[in-house]
Amino acid sequence: MEGPALLLKYPNISDSSVISDNSEKSEKILEKNGLYQLDIQATSQTKKRERAEKRVKSRCNCGKEGIIGLYQLEEEERIKYHPISCGSVLCEYCAWRESRKLFRRVEEYVKGIKDVLVFATLTIGGRESVKEAVKRAYEVKKRFGDLRVSGRKRYPKLREKVEELLSRYIERVRETDGEEEARKRYEFHTNVMRKFEKRFGNKLYESGMKVRDIFKGIWKFEITTNSNHCSNHWHSHWHIILSGYIPLFLLQALWIEAGGGEILDIRQVKEKREAIDELSKYHVKPVIKEEQLQKLSEETLIELEESLYGRRKVETWGIEKVEIEKESQWKLVKLFTNIRVKLSVNNIRDIPKRVRELWKNDIDDFEYCIAKNEKYEIEGKIVLDKHGNLWWNIDLDKLKWINRLLF
């Protein structure tokens, strides 16, 4: 009798003899355990929503308050402002800060690449709710990356699909733009396909190569809507920057097979500077445009936050790790966590845009706003540099004196 009694304390352990001998007691324990699990799930969902609501509300005041740190470079000392950010996926500043290291690595990679670069936009298709659109976009991308491209039987079948898509496209061009234009476009696309096949050669007929092994580059997720109500009118898509000659209709055939939409846009980048500028634009660009966010209800914003939080909005495939120089040589001497500072602006969500303007106009820094600590009556100008650092111009002797009083 001791064995069954011990087993019944653990409803996850299944034992048919125990259940049959103590069926009534077992059912009660299992029911209690099931309700307990449901309660945990409900509590988890409630907390997840509460955190999403908090982030959406704090987005309006992102970075308005922060702490400061003393930094040193050789004999020079400066005070740096560390903003307390909202952490929302819909915040331009937080999204920019999250992905800036990745983009610096990608920028160095682009500078060192010798092959051609192309930009492509891959759509998902359909009008869906926020959660469905986000979930399907990531599922399609994962299936796309895992698709096999090469193989003795696989590649010829894939080649047939490419020829079929190309033929349909050429027919449409012939109807709208005439025979001459159709011939030019056919020659262009077949030439790109030949360059692609020449690049990989016999590897295309050997098993093992997947899409992620061939199409190397960077992915950026975006979601948009054409409706102010935004209940079931969401469209998700991926912007990708790839290296090498990429046949449009091979990309389309694989994307459709993975469950994506038929609409694709692909174009070649002639200069690396253009590619870096485009990367910088995607770097600053949020997952959804600001003018659309302003039209959405609070409930829709919370649903967006819940669906997108924790997901990687920027990803890379096959990009080699390259050494990047530190943006700043300043070393942290001390962090003043007990001294809170407030800015004169409501939030710092415009910093990504400001930083881009500094780089574009070749300016090192500019006066961003005023910051002050009312308790200790410290006030000074905040200077934004082109690396996104916020420096506080104040009397350092007074700050050190206050620090000695506190400690």
SSE layout:
Blueprint (H helix, E strand, L loop, with lengths): L1 H6 L8 H6 L1 H36 L6 E9 L2 E8 L8 H21 L4 E7 L6 H17 L7 H24 L1 H22 L10 H4 L2 E9 L8 E10 L4 H11 L5 E6 L2 H13 L5 H4 L4 H11 L5 E4 L13 E13 L7 H10 L4 E9 L4 E8 L4 E4 L2 H11 L1
Antiparallel strand pairs: 1-2, 1-8, 2-11, 3-5, 3-6, 4-5, 4-7, 8-9, 9-10, 10-11
> Which structural category do the helix and sheet elements fall into?
alpha+beta
Strand content: 15-25%
CA gyration radius, whole angstroms: 28 Å
Q: Tally of extended strands? A: 11
The low-pLDDT segments are: 1-22
Please give the largest β-sheet. 6 strands, antiparallel, barrel
How would you describe this protein?
The chain is an alpha+beta fold. Helix content is 48%, strand content 21%. The protein is built from 14 helices and eleven strands. The chain has helices spanning 2-7, 16-21, 23-58, 92-112, 130-146, 154-177, 179-200, 211-214, 248-258, 272-284, 290-293, 298-308, 351-360, 396-406, and strands spanning 65-73, 76-83, 117-123, 217-225, 234-243, 264-269, 314-317, 331-343, 365-373, 378-385, 390-393. A six-stranded antiparallel beta barrel has the order 1-2-11-10-9-8. Strand 10 (378-385) and strand 11 (390-393) form a beta hairpin. Helix 6 (154-177) runs antiparallel to helix 7. The protein is elongated, with a radius of gyration of 28 Å. Residues 1-22 have low confidence and may be disordered.
